Amino acid sequence: MDVQTTQTSPDSLNWVNDSRQTSTYHPNDTSTGQSFIDNVSLYLPRLFLMNGGMQFAMLNTVYEEEWDSGAWVGDYMDTYTYDAEDNLTEEISETLDTGTWMSEWRMEYLYDIDGNCSQTIEYDFNNIEWEPYERISYTWSDNVANDEEVQPVRTGCLAVFPSPFTNQVQIKSDFVDVNHIEYKVYNVKGQVVRTLESINNQEVTWDGKDERGNSTSSGIYLIRATAGDNTATTKTLKLK
After folding, report:
1. Which of 106, 228, 115, 116 is nearest to 176 (CA)?
2. Contact 160, 139 (CB under 8 A)
3. Phi first, then psi: what are they for 44, rounded to 5°?
4. What's the pTM value of the predicted model, to 2 decimals?
5. Is 208 left (phi over 0), alpha (psi -120 to 50) or beta?
6. SS3 for 44?
7. Could you give phi then psi for residue 216, rounded to 5 degrees?
8. Where are the domains of the chain?
9. What is the SS3 assignment for 104?
10. Strand, coil or helix: what is 51?
């Protein structure tokens, strides 16, 4: 189990509690610091393909609380289910409403015979039953050499500095024949915590905060730059 507590400063002098997230892990989870780094490299392309839903450890639950009137109050909880091969098969999100947990969102994961995710189905709860609203199918194939000319993937140069950082980090990219750049900052769960925009070859600053202005926790963050069909991704480490 690990606990992440976020605090904010309303007057730039004092710190007050804002939110707290508690994560528990499946008994079969064997993730380590090294395996986490390996998985970031291995699954990064799939993370962006699968709506940012890839995770790097076998979570059981993620429980989010908000600080309200001097006490922690439950906000939402995600619950994860796995099959006999330890593949994630279901993720359910619930919110706490007047002391009762209410189902809100559900994702099903289906796999092919090789263990690749072949389909995801998203559901909303209508207070009576689950209603499917989006299904995405994936086809995985082996690369086979042929005589066709291979078109290179266009990428750009993406730099962040300083890294590691404590308060803020500068981001700069250099693409060819583009002007507008969009940057997305992802946490290790694949969630977008901040979106920034800039013009090509001009620095932009990420102040280490999310879209609501709350300071993010220390840890690894992935930064992805997109300019038309051009992309580049790098990572940085935020320290306390």
Report:
1. 228
2. no
3. -55, -45
4. 0.55
5. left
6. helix
7. -80, 160
8. 2-137, 157-238
9. strand
10. coil
Among 63, 112, 104, 62, which residue's Cα sits nearest to residue 87? 112
Classify residue 131 as left (phi > 0), alpha (psi -120 to 50) or beta: beta
Q: In CATH, what number does 2-137 get?
A: 2.40.128.720
pLDDT at 216 exceeding the cut of 70? yes
Q: Are 171 and 203 in contact (CB under 8 A)?
A: yes
Q: Band the pLDDT of 189: cuts 50, 70, 90.
A: confident
Q: pLDDT tens-digit profile of 9-46?
A: 888 889 999 899 898 888 887 766 665 555 555 455 44
From the options 2.40.128.100, 3.30.9.10, 3.40.50.2000, 2.60.40.3080, give the CATH code of 157-238.
Answer: 2.60.40.3080
Q: Which pair of structure tokens corresponds to residue 178?
A: 């583009």
Q: What percent helix, strand, coil does the chain show, rounded to 5?
A: 5, 55, 40
Cβ partners under 8 Å of residue 182, min gap 6: 195, 196, 197, 225, 226, 227
The C-alpha atoms of residue 175 and residue 226 are separated, in whole angstroms, by 9
